[in-house]
Amino acid sequence: MILLSDANVLIDLGHVGGLGVLQRISETEVLDLVLLECEHESQPDLVKEILASGVKVVATERVWLTEAGIYHNGPLSMQDALCLHYAKKFGRTLLAGDRPLRERCQQEAVEIRGTIWIVEEAFNRGLVPAAELCRWLKAWPWLNRRLPKGEMKRLEKLMGCDTKVTAR
């Protein structure tokens, strides 16, 4: 499995210093046009951190922009449409959190995962200590990252976040 990340997942992980977990889960790519979305004054070093984590940057080919046009409608941005197209064409698992993109991926039979899945994978594989993952889950709401509250509560319970479990 090769992962293709949308900007929101990289932003989530960048906020908590968790970008390094991606390559430990699986080879991870980001499209160059999506990486541009990560350039923001609120996280001035994010692009540098993404590159340092080993995420591979894929240069967008002009033909992909044309081909992705069939998905660029309604709530999907051009970057979302491009991610969907690339994931479908090259058999990638898309990492994203946007509901419209998730729904369209389901319609197109493209495997999609999100930030919650990354946390759960990291926990189940013992890649990151539970205490650190619990810190991530507690930090994201304070950083205005919109993640499903029910899933976050489920993970907190699974990892023992309220019982001060520090390792699995």
In helices, the fraction of residues equals 40-55%
CATH topology name of the largest domain, in short, is: Rossmann fold
Mean of the pLDDT scores? 92
The total count of strands amounts to 5
CATH homologous superfamily of the largest domain - what is it? Answer: 5'-nuclease
Strand content: 5-15%
Number of domains: 2
Structural class: alpha/beta
**Rg over alpha carbons:** 16 Å
Shape: globular
Terminal residue distance: 25 Å
**CATH class descriptor name of the largest domain:** Alpha Beta
Largest sheet, spatial ordering of strands: 3-2-1-4-5
Based on the structure given, which CATH architecture of the largest domain is correct?
3-Layer(aba) Sandwich
Number of H/I helices: 10
Helix-strand pattern: EHHEHHEHHEHEHHH
Give the biggest beta sheet: 5 strands, parallel
* Uncertain stretches of 5 or more adjacent residues: none
Can you give a write-up of this model?
- With 168 residues, the chain is an alpha/beta fold.
- The protein folds into two domains: 3-113, 5'-nuclease (Rossmann fold); 126-163, no CATH class.
- Helices cover 52% and strands 9% of the residues.
- The chain contains ten helices and five strands, in the order βααβααβααβαβααα.
- It has helices spanning 7-15, 21-25, 32-35, 46-52, 62-68, 78-90, 99-107, 115-124, 130-142, 149-159, and strands spanning 3-5, 28-31, 56-58, 93-95, 112-113.
- It has a five-stranded parallel sheet with strand order 3-2-1-4-5.
- α7 (99-107) links the parallel β4 (93-95) and β5 (112-113).
- The longest helix has 13 residues, at 78-90.
